[in-house]
Amino acid sequence: MTPIIKSINKRIEFVTGLSMEESEELQVANYGLGGHYAPHFDHARVSDGLWIFKT
Hints:
Layout: H1 3-16
């Protein structure tokens, strides 16, 4: 994790009062000029074979 990302995470923790320990990695998206972002869920079904189980 870069120093910049660590700094961003600390700011998020301070402002929200939440821990970043169990959070997802930071994601940045660029939709370009005129791009559109629609709310959605990122998910996969077990039947898709995308799950990785570690023991």
